[in-house]
Amino acid sequence: MLSRLSRLTRLQAVGVCAVPFVGLLATAVFAPLPFSVAQPGMTANVLGENQGTQVITISGAPTRDTAGQLRMTTIEATGPDAQITLSDVIDGWFRTDQAIMPRDSVYPSGQTTKEIEQHNTEQMEESQDAATEAALRYLDRRDEGIKVTLKLADVGGPSAGLLFSLGIVDKLDGNGDGGDLTGGRTIAGTGTIGVDGTVGAVGGVALKTQAARRDGATVFLVPRAECSDARSELPKGLRLVPVTTLKGAVSALTALGSGKGDVPSC
After folding, report:
1. Which of 55, 61, 107, 188 could form a disulfide with 71 if both were Cys (CB 3.0 to 4.6 A apart)?
2. Is 164 inside a domain boundary?
3. In a domain, 237, yes or no
4. Residue 131 within a domain
5. Which residue, among 39, 30, 114, has the nearest Cα to 78 in the 3D structure?
6. Residue range(s) defining the domain that contains residue 201
7. What domain count does the chain have?
8. Structural domain includes residue 213
9. CB neighbours (10 Å) of residue 207?
């Protein structure tokens, strides 16, 4: 009798404990966590139009008609107020088309959505200025009164800098021998640009390669420091070309188009 009562007591105790345990588990699964979910975003051909507006407009110098495409790439991330749960994190962990990132790495802590948008807009404007300066400096045409206007709606941050510079070079000079930098291909890429032509890392390259391949690119220009990240989920049919400078990127594309010279690889 005592044995049966003891077992009954233990079962009752387990039953009582199970209720708060299930409650804690449910709370853990559905409680918001400080993460953002990122995925491949839009791409845009900087040699053409985006949302009906020419991305690169040049005045004060003749420009070339270009073939092929130079596509800047982006990632999309859930907003700073999005409720990301444990189930979202687990789901994203096993998917190759998503990345789970600390929210503070995407949205600086303490900033409102409006402040973040303003910050990204300012970074884009600074990147456009640097891209223009770098391109004209590379071409040794800074003193010719050339005016470049860059417009790309709904995109912020500095990561399109390299592609902006390449687009300007292609429109003004091409590969230097009358041909297109793209060689008629769809080239995509990412990377910041300094006024001296230095290419910087940006983050999110594994997702950007997927966006690039989705939109038809066969070559992807990647900051050399991010080669390993770009290789981690590299889509089939996309060739990585690492770069460290604008000059190096132009040389690589020229060699790729002509079939002569060395094209760097990751």
Report:
1. 188
2. yes
3. yes
4. yes
5. 39
6. 41-76+127-258
7. 1
8. yes
9. 24
